[in-house]
Amino acid sequence: MPRLYRSFFLFLFAIPALASFAQDTALYSWTTSSKKIEEGKYEIRFSTPGKAGWQLYAPGQELGGVKTVELSFPDSSIRAEAVFTQEGASRSFPSNLFENAPVKVYEGATEWAILVTIRGEVPALLQGTLTYFYGNKEEFNPDLPLAFTVALEGGVKAESIKVASIDIQHPVAPCGDDGTKNKSLVTIFLLGLLGGLIALVTPCVFPMIPVTVTFFTKKSTDRKKGITNALLYGFFIFLIYVLITVPFHVAGKAISPEIFNNISTNVWLNLLFFAVFVAFALSFFGLYEIGLPSGLANRADAKSGLGNIGGIFFMATTLAIVSFSCTGPLLGTLLVGVADQGAWPLTIGAAGFGIALGLPFALFAMFPHWLQSLPKSGGWMTDVKVVLGFLELALAVKFLSNADLVKQWGLLKREVFIGLWVLIGLLTVLYLLGKIRISHSSPVKRFSFTRIAFIVLFAAISIYLLPGLSNTKWADLKLISGFPPPRTYSLYNTEKQSLFKPLHNDYTGALARAKAENKPVLIDFTGWACVNCRRMEEKVWTDKTVDSLMRHEFIVVSLYVDERKNLPLTEQTVVKLSNDTEKSIVTVGDKWSTFQIENFGATSQPQYAIISPDQVALTKTKYYTPDAEEFIEWLECGLKTHRGN
Questions:
Q1: Of 263-277, 535-549, 603-617, where does mean pLDDT reach its minimum?
Q2: Distance (Å, whole) CA 443 – CA 434
Q3: How far is residue 448's CA from residue 435's CA, in Å, rounded to a whole number?
């Protein structure tokens, strides 16, 4: 099959961050106002001074199959009339852009008004989006959509997100954590290093080691110069992978603080990752070859002859480009896994990857006789690529599961997820045994120690996963807790399970119960796609002491920061954050993620907080704590503090 080039950039998850730079660049500026007509009915007015040299296409037209003006709202209980009333200097003319069809445009100051009817309680603030087109006789352009908020007379005001009595900086007792406990930077660096070492033995990179090292040692005037050039080459490989993460540092200063968390929980991004990883897996199976556009590689290769340092840099760039089909999935897997922890973990992971990839080139240049000990390229490299393809499929299932959990579609219940992983594991074993063949793979003539070890490994994994298909006590699979969906998201009836179930997103109800029963509130900031949250629930919450404390001594409420269900209309609002920016609150997840940031100063999950019934912070918060004894100590500290008050 001919090579199929695709510009697959796993760093597409940067789009939401980079999109923030587009704000405030709309060509037209607007003001919005409202007027109450009768109960539940309002006139919404949009005014603009216009833009010199441009024309605004009037509402009520459909040109080229596109409506020139559309008004949308985040809730189905809001209905707009079909027709705008229009004021301003307008004119009509036959447009060459639309086969001389008559079009109507406004020039200069313009006002449009429309009647909006709201069923049920009216909110104090109405949010919506106005999309419109502008241009001239030669152009027809969409402007950036106008996301507007307008106050409604007599509307019900939403509760404040910020709770003044919660002072997490000065809790009653000092027990708890001072910072987020996620993967340490050392761990992330080592994972990056491991990913780079794996990439090193792929068919895209491994054959280039002796070729490149020989080039440097033979083309240089002396051995010292050759070693210097090779060291530069290795350093530039490292530098290129680090530079990939720079946009995240730049963008991170201009965007919402929870953007990195949203990367890992956004439904559409998870579906995108699912599609990309399936595409990579199929490429690894030999159906086609993925790479960056050949023109880009050719231009980088042409630059490699410019000067000494510049040429070496472009040679390193060429390596990064031509090896993309093998390194992209590995580096992308690592970066996606730590994306919710911020920009620095991304950089540390990429640095580890770059060091593992670039260091061998420098070492072999310093000790060229080592090249003789390298195994020859051959069929084993195809096997590495195919096994990586199966691993990519397993990761694709995880990304699809994230989207499924957030939207609660019910497509990948726990047993379906585990069943797919069992199937992938068995297919890997059959491939390594030579029972199934994939394009370009060679017949298995002998079973080396390494092949046998991997056969045993994948067979053991598949056997370990099998009990997860049942509804027995063996179905916990604690070694991989957090990766499959939780036990409560099951094909089986979960009502009979003895697992502790907190209140779900009912913070007001939790406070009411806490006052009635004189118990502290334990807040669990969690997410459907949060791996560490599931690990805590399956490993720590099931401890007998933890379970007893949560059932009998606390009112526990789980607040899901990635819940995509819309809030009731009167709770949808726009809030001013502590950093003086504004945020639209539409979904349940919007509310609880903002509540967490504003009151508890964190964006990562899980985060646990203990507050009194009158919303006073009793302790510092607690993050991911796999040690049950440590978690118990913190719970008991909060309980003692509550009783002492």
A1: 263-277
A2: 7
A3: 16
DSSP secondary structure of 445-512: ----HHHHHHHHHHHHHHHHHGGGGSSSGGGG-GGGTTSSPPTTSSSS--TT------EES-HHHHHH
Residue 532 near residue 624 (C-beta atoms within 8 A): yes
Q: How far is 264 from 182, CA to CA, in rounded Å?
A: 14
Q: State the pLDDT at residue 333.
A: 57
CB 172 within 8 A of CB 617: yes
What digits encode the pLDDT tens for the residues 222-232?
Answer: 667 767 777 78
Q: What are the pLDDT digits (tens) for 388-433?
A: 788 889 888 988 998 898 888 889 999 999 999 999 999 999 999 9
Rounded to an integer, the average pLDDT of 613-626 is 93
Choose the weakest-confidence range: 72-76, 549-553, 576-580: 576-580
Q: Region of 222 please: left (phi>0), alpha (psi -120 to 50) or beta.
A: beta
Q: Of 130, 153, 148, whose CA–CA distance to 40 is shortest?
A: 153
Closest-CA residue to 77 (of 137, 144, 122): 122
d(CA 160, CA 156): 12
The sheet with strand 555-560 has its strands ordered as 503-504, 555-560, 521-526, 607-611
User: Please, which residues have CB within 8 angstroms of residue 65's CB and are 6 or more apart in sequence?
Assistant: none
DSSP state of 204: T
Tokens 């730079």 belong to residue:
21
Strand partners, 133: 142
* Pair 118, 40: CB distance under 8 Å: yes
Q: Look at residue 597 and tell me whether its pLDDT is greater than 60.
A: yes
pTM: 0.72
Phi then psi dihedrals of residue 50, to 5 deg: 85, -175
* Percent of all residues in the chain with a pLDDT value above 70, rounded to a whole number: 76
Q: Using DSSP, state whether 172 is helix, strand or coil.
A: coil
Which pLDDT score is estimated for 354? 80
Residue 82 contacts by C-beta under 8 Å, 6 or more apart in sequence? none
Alpha carbon distances (Å) from 610 to 93, 475, 537, 598, 640:
67, 31, 17, 16, 11
Task: Residue 439: name the closest of 254, 271, 583, 286 by CA.
Answer: 286
- HSE at residue 520, side-chain half, CA atoms within 13 A, is 27
Model pLDDT, residue 220: 53
Separation between Cα atoms, residue 580 and residue 589, nearest integer Å: 21
> Mind spelling out the 3-state secondary structure of 68-115?
CEEEECCCCCEEECCCCEEEEEEEEEEEHHHCCEEEEEEEEEEEEEEE
Dist. CA 405–CA 529, nearest whole Å? 7
Q: Are strands 101-118 and 41-48 parallel, antiparallel or unpaired?
A: antiparallel
308, 315 in Cβ contact below 8 A?
A: no
Cα Rg, the chain, nearest whole Å: 29
What domains, with CATH codes, occur in the chain? 1-25+201-376 (no CATH), 26-143 (2.60.40), 503-644 (3.40.30.10)
Q: Which helix (H) or strand (E) holds 527?
A: none
